[in-house]
Amino acid sequence: MGVEVTIEGLTKSFGRQNIWEDLTLTLPAGEVSVMLGPSGTGKTVFLKSLVGLLKPERGRVLVDGVDMVNSPTKDIFEARKKFGLMFQDGALFGSMNLFDNIAFPLREHTKKKESEIRDIVMERMEIVGLLGSEGKLPGEISGGMRKRAGLARALVLDPEIILVDEPDSGLDPVRTSYISQLMIDLNAQIDATMLIVTHNLEIISTVPDNMGMLYRRRLVTFGPRELLLTSADPAVAQFLSGSRAGPIGMAEEKDAATIAMETRNGLSAHTNKPRPLVPQLDPTPGMPPRMAVLRRKKRVSGMLHTLPPAARQAIEATLTPSEAGYPPGAPTQQLPGVPAHGPAPAAPAAHHGHPGHPGQGGNPGGQWT
């Protein structure tokens, strides 16, 4: 099973430009989490900071007792072996065929024999659906195949934590659907902790167990997927609706006069309604069940009382009474028209509260982890 990743007070700047500050959250072990946010909010910088490729000015990233920010270099290098990192473009060597690209970490960081390396590489290529393409060069294959090759390379060292940077970048909707299913199937097979950085609405809606959002150099919130998908926070609602109306503009945030004008015209209220909740993807038939689902149910049922009504009701619709903590025979607070324990539809919007207040809006402290 994957390991838990604890982020405490993480702050990163480049010169005078503050990228984000005081990020605090926990990636639950073995679950799939997504970090979303408008372009330019430092999502890729966040990934690189987790694995120790960039050094934040303040804060800690704890992985099995090792601080990826402040520990000695040798300890960070050793802990980095627990990570697999898939970059946006696959980051493949153009002069190497796919087999050699995927084998590169094994040849670089292990003393395995070539026969062992071949077995591992071919197994990982089978997982991502690339068997038969091992002799091709990166320039001879599609963007989607390059991404899958990059993912296979991230898997060869048996990582406990997988970081995926915008897997949908440059892909059409059909290929994005395949990538989404691949993420779920991969988690079912290896039970690793996964963090996906994206702003693709399909991935956001169907893949993660947990979600967070970066905006205006802060973590808006992080918690169960239902918390963001039912959120009434203006920035979250605008982002999930893909609307121009709201605080997010071309330069990340709009001026107060523009927002006031939109409010007077009723644009935000009309456009940024909560998106209907769709069921999370299941593993492909024949795959093992996702152990993350059982662990998440147990973890989330223990925090139901801390969540806003919309998120709580959406989660309860997917739980049995005993999983939700109700005594046998007790009535559950079920949404109107929702079949018992079926997929959660759109829930009423939660009230937007002050940042950091449990279950309402900001959560810079990452309480719902």
UniProtKB/TrEMBL annotation:
Residues 5-241 form the ABC transporter domain. InterPro entries: AAA+_ATPase, ABC_transporter-like_ATP-bd, ABC_transporter-like_CS, P-loop_NTPase. Residues 336-350 have a biased composition (Low complexity). The keyword Transport applies. Residues 356-369 have a biased composition (Gly residues). Keywords: ATP-binding, Nucleotide-binding, Transport. GO terms for molecular function: ATP binding. Residues 267-288, 321-369 are annotated as: Disordered. PANTHER family: INTERMEMBRANE PHOSPHOLIPID TRANSPORT SYSTEM ATP-BINDING PROTEIN MLAF, PROTEIN TRIGALACTOSYLDIACYLGLYCEROL 3, CHLOROPLASTIC. This is ATP-binding cassette domain-containing protein. It comes from Streptomyces boetiae.
